[in-house]
Amino acid sequence: MTQHNIKRMFRAFACGAFLCLGLSNLAAQETGKVKVEWLGHEFYRFTSPKGVVVITSPWLGNPDGPVALDSLTRTDIILVPNAHNDDMGNPIEIAAQSGATVLAPGPLGRYLIDKGLKQEQFRRTGIGDRFVIKGITFKIGPSSHDNTMPNGADGGPTASFFVTFENGFTIFYNGHSTLVGDLPYYAELYQPDLAILGLAQDPPEFAAVAKMMTTNNPKLKTIYPSHMRPDAPIVAEGRKALSKYGLDKMLIVPELRKPIEF
């Protein structure tokens, strides 16, 4: 065999090896897991298959906390649905130490900037907007909730979030919203696998929103409640309300500060 042919065979082998390695990495990416951790009230932490960290309504002093600020150094995106203290949390402090991007309604974002959030760390959420940040897609869905800011001004249209990770797994986080008529269309289009829904004080509406998330969406397998205490009687009421639609077995109350992989 000539030296030229040997080189050709080596190149072919190397290309094949790299192709296999590439396919292997792609397969690993596709089958990677999303970690979901409940830190109390509406405060959730999602860690993507590639290690991107997304947090929701990060209220450090929530009733089941407190959550230490220095435990959130690795944070990439902060989701703020509205301006209520428990729904907004402490995005300024967390963004300052982590460099995270804050997604929030427009006027509320300007308020946060006036209070110390860097302009370049803010992205305005308008209903229907879509962002791709660090490989994760955020679709801004409809929401219905008061958005009065601490200064008494209107914080703008409140937001819900469809979050799709690198492996295709999608979470719907509605903050502390109630029924919105367009949600079934969003559910059909964005196909959430996990719905994190505000239970608060109205189990029938919580259950109705969960039902909306099943609209032409066979992917929904799990429902997490938020805006409640772990052992509160309202959890049992929420499960009973879900049973009306045959969804009660989907309800899981996660253990605080224990990541679950999906």
Give a summary of the structure in a few sentences:
By secondary structure, the chain is of the alpha/beta class. It has helices at residues 3-31, 85-88, 91-98, 106-114, 183-190, 203-213, 233-243; strands at 35-38, 44-47, 53-56, 77-79, 101-104, 122-124, 130-133, 136-141, 160-164, 170-173, 194-198, 222-226, 260-261.
Question: How does this model look, in words?
Answer:
There is one protein chain. This protein is of the alpha/beta class. The chain folds into 2 domains: 1-31; 35-254, Metallo-beta-lactamase, Chain A, CATH 3.60.15.10. The chain contains 7 helices and 13 strands. Helix 4 (106-114) links the parallel strand 5 (101-104) and strand 6 (122-124). The longest helix is centred in the first third of the chain and has 29 residues, at 3-31. The protein is globular, with a radius of gyration of 21 Å. The termini are far apart.
The first-level CATH class of the largest domain is given as Alpha Beta
**Computed Rg:** 21 Å
The CATH architecture designation of the largest domain is 4-Layer Sandwich
- Report low-confidence residues grouped into runs of 5 or more: 2-30
Strand-pairing-aware structural class: alpha/beta
- Percent of residues in β-strands: 15-25%
Q: Could you name the CATH homologous superfamily of the largest domain? A: Ribonuclease Z/Hydroxyacylglutathione hydrolase-like
Q: Please provide the count of β strands.
A: 13
Shape by Cα distribution? globular
Estimate nothing, just give the exact number of structural domains. Answer: 2
CATH topology of the largest domain: Metallo-beta-lactamase, Chain A
What percent of residues adopt helix (DSSP H or I)? 25-40%
Q: What do the pLDDT scores average to?
A: 90
Strand order of the largest sheet: 6-5-4-3-2-1-13
Counted by DSSP, the helix tally is 7
* Series of H and E elements: HEEEEHHEHEEEEEHEHEHE
User: What is the terminal-to-terminal distance?
Assistant: 53 Å
Largest sheet: 7 strands, mixed
Instruction: Write down the oligomeric state.
Output: single chain
